[in-house]
From TrEMBL:
Signal peptide stretch: none
Domain SWIM-type residue range list: 421-453
Compositional bias ranges of the Basic and acidic residues kind: 533-547
Region feature (Disordered): 524-547
GO-annotated molecular function: zinc ion binding
Record protein name field: SWIM-type domain-containing protein
Amino acid sequence: MRKNFEWKVKRSNKTTLHLVCIIDDCTWKLRAVRREEGTYFQVRSFVNEHTCPLEEIHRRHRQASAVTIAEVVAPRLQQADGRLMRPKDIIADMKTMYGIQIMYSKAHDALQYALSLTYGTHEESFQLLPSFAYVLEQQNPGTITDLQCADDGKFLYFFMSLGSSIRGFRRCMRPVIAVDGTHLKGRFGGTMFVATAQDGNEQVYPIAFGYGDSENNLSWEWFLECLRGALGHIDDLVFISDRHASIEAGISKVFPYATHTICCWHFGENMKKRFHRKDVADIMDNAARSYCEIQYDRHMEELRRLHKGAYDYAIDAGPHKWSRVHCPQRRYRLMTTNVAECINSCLKFARQLPLMTLAEFIRNMLQKWFHDRHTNARSMRHRLTDAAHLVILKRVEKCGYMTVNAVDWNIFSVRHKGKQWTVDLARKTCTCNKFQMDFLPCSHALAAARYMTPSIYCFIVPKRESNCVHCCRERNVDFTSLCADYYKRETLIDAYSVPIMPVGHPSSWVVPSDITSRVVLNPRAKRQSGRPMEGRHVSREDNHTVV
């Protein structure tokens, strides 16, 4: 292959193999005969010299079949940066290593065959799902899985929520869940459903994954039913998603006590495409992120004067859906589905793998995340997480310029640049609304905390290990006491304290016969022909355009 010489089979039967060069006048040949005492062939004659004319040598090698190329690239499918090899990478490697130019279609076929050599076929993957789910639950207590098949055994749905994630969310996370769906790029297509939260260090915290045929009412309702079964009842629960009608219908049916909100980024992108104006989307985003109604009303009035149609569109969508200040429950600092989009991005190349391999890829990814984040949390120097500490640090820089006057033991008036706010440190509230909405002290609350007299300090904040006289001499409230537990280092350590255990190779699994005997066949739906879509599926809302 490196020298661009090709051969063809002149004779091949049970006893003889005769190969010659594809150029008739060339002297290269190989003849082998089967030995009588075994199945081996013995080379009887071999002329390893080509006498082909130079003009007959070309760069497309007939021996460079998709199967041969797959065997060459299979050991290098996983790249150094964690992604999987792509057809264009195979084309480049074959040209660099062997000087052969292959077509994209052959590189694509070689990649699919290499994937099956390394990770197994899609058919084997579906059949292994029951055993994988059993071993996953045994190795990780508290894990919830669900496998649904049709009456004829064809695959319908698969759900997976690791016990460590369930425990961490219930104990240590803010009750805000971002849900999203993304298409799979394997042979049979389908959709992956994702439910994620965000930890106190502003890191993605995956909760559950599901796999189905497409984003429709039945599939979303099934996924949300499984999620409710895994998490149980959560007080003040908030969901964030795009404006997919099936998600809204599923949440209202399965979680009637929860609040459903929409991603303000997706909402802004829809406005931008609908009205062909970026400025209306920016104003709407400012209104959505406002903490108090005065700011919200000011931005909405600006939007109304700028574009009446965009204003009506935002009002019709429901401010309680996209606005922070009108949301019935706290959204904290989560206004977008970015945490779910990050998961989809991490699995961009893994979504073409067989289903069981994809589930194992996710488990392995979360295993690494839990270990690394637990180690990082234990090494943090502050009582708050690094992300929360940076937020407080920036707000502390502002509070030095503010004027504080005491109103009561716990209530303070804070002035800055002609504006005035009232802070109640006992109730942890401020008229700017940031304190009570984020459960993190705003700059006004931090300014009030610095102003406190020693007697008030001892009344509100529990005494530290050092004597009270020393605390009063500092005349500063411990800012950590004003933050919710979600943002504390100990909570972050607890969230990742239970490791995710591996399941091992399928050959080492010990599974009851009633599980291994369960038949799971390929799903009915297959992926559409052509290259899979790389970006987000455009909804009907995105397609509707008004000039």
